[in-house]
TrEMBL record:
Lineage of source species: Bacteria, Bacillati, Actinomycetota, Actinomycetes, Micrococcales
UniProt protein name: Ferritin-like metal-binding protein YciE
Coiled coil regions in record: none
Pfam families documented for this protein: DUF892
Origin species: Agromyces ramosus
Gene3D superfamilies: 1.20.1260.10
InterPro entries: DUF892_YciF-like, Ferritin-like, Ferritin-like_SF, YciF
Superkingdom of source: Bacteria
Length: 159
C-alpha cells in the first residue's frame, strides 16, 4: 500500500487525531485485560473506573472530529498495540503474586503515552480558533494525568 505523505500541519493533525482514536480503543481493550489480570479488588476497580472514563474520552474525540469538521476515522497505533503486547507477555512470565505490580506499571506506561499524545494534539488545535475542541482534549488530558497519578501512588504503596 502506498502511504500518502502528510504535507501540512492540518494533515498531520488529522492523522494524529485518527491515531488517538485507535489509541483510546486499544486502551479500552487493555484496561479490560489488566482488570482481569489484577488480583486486588481495589486495583480491578481502578481499572474499571478508568475504562468508563475511556468511553467518555472516545466520545470527546468524536466531538473533536465534528467540531474541526473532519471525517471521523482511525489510523494505526502500533505504540499502544506494543504496550499491550508487552503487558501481556510480562503477565505471562511473572508469578501471580507480582501481577498487581505488573498491571499497575504497564497501565502507567500506557497513561504516559496517552498524556504525550494529548499534549501534542492540544498544541496543534490551539492555533485553530476551536476553543471547544481544545477544552475537550484538555478534559481527556486531565483524566489521563489524574489516572497516572493514581496508578503511581498505588504502585508506590504496594511495591
Ligand atoms: Fe485514555
Amino acid at each position: 500500500m502506498v502511504q500518502q505523505t502528510l504535507k501540512t500541519p492540518e494533515e498531520l493533525l488529522r492523522f494524529q487525531l485518527r491515531t488517538a482514536m485507535t489509541m483510546e480503543n486499544d486502551s479500552l481493550a487493555a484496561l479490560g485485560e489488566l482488570a482481569k489480570a489484577a488480583r486486588s479488588a481495589e486495583i480491578k476497580k481502578l481499572f474499571r473506573h478508568h475504562a468508563d472514563e475511556t468511553k467518555d474520552q472516545i466520545a470527546n474525540l468524536r466531538e473533536v472530529f465534528r467540531l474541526l469538521e473532519l471525517k471521523e476515522a482511525t489510523a494505526p497505533s502500533p505504540s499502544t498495540k506494543g504496550i499491550s503486547r508487552q503487558a501481556g507477555s510480562l503477565i505471562e512470565r511473572t508469578a501471580p503474586k507480582l501481577h498487581d505490580q505488573v498491571v499497575l506499571s504497564c497501565a502507567l506506561g500506557n497513561e504516559h503515552y496517552e498524556i504525550s499524545a494529548y499534549q501534542s494534539l492540544i498544541i496543534a488545535v490551539s492555533g485553530m480558533q476551536a476553543p471547544q475542541a481544545v477544552a475537550l482534549l484538555q478534559d481527556n488530558l486531565d483524566q489521563e494525568t489524574h489516572t497516572s497519578e493514581e496508578l503511581y501512588a498505588t504502585l508506590q504503596r504496594i511495591a
